[in-house]
């Protein structure tokens, strides 16, 4: 197991239990105690946990894991991305993508499909798409959010103000039939809203863990969302509420 995978696994166990032990992690992850100690030190330096004698405890608040550690639900995210790619029909010539693990999976599918203009504020997506001959890539400016590799803020917002797109795909941290779509950061939420306003159709990509959930900053009302693509783990009653609110729901 690579260190990045171990770090994600440690954070997952910490979120479930509130504390972890070095010996328990070494056994569960089939690695050495020394490696686990180095992993815990790395995570503490990033203020993602607090080390204790023989283990670690969760910090009081962890709002968002950095993108490089979000390795869970890989199969679900791939399925969601494949379902999303089917919305890019021959009549769609331009799309927008914000940052996130699921939109990154979608970008990789679009890169080899057909000629397409793609607008994104995500540096990792831009890096993936830049050498692709079929993609006419546009990248916004803005300040960088290290957690998501996204360019956000007034520069990004102004860049998006004069753009018109056929379709926008948004990764979100929460979607709720009453409160709408949301993310953890208020500056990111504003830039996501500006991206949303560029398109005639908005498709939200959210795995089941985010359906029915709220996050700190609202991106937009549910009336601004046309389609939700999720997976089979999404709560059925929440999906019914979203359908009643006028959202087309696709379960990948």
Automatic annotation (TrEMBL):
Pfam families named among the record's database cross-references: DeoRC, HTH_DeoR
GO MF annotations in UniProt: DNA binding
Entry keyword set: DNA-binding, Transcription, Transcription regulation
Residues of the HTH deoR-type domain: 3-58
SMART domains for this protein: DeoRC, HTH_DEOR
Protein name: DeoR/GlpR family DNA-binding transcription regulator
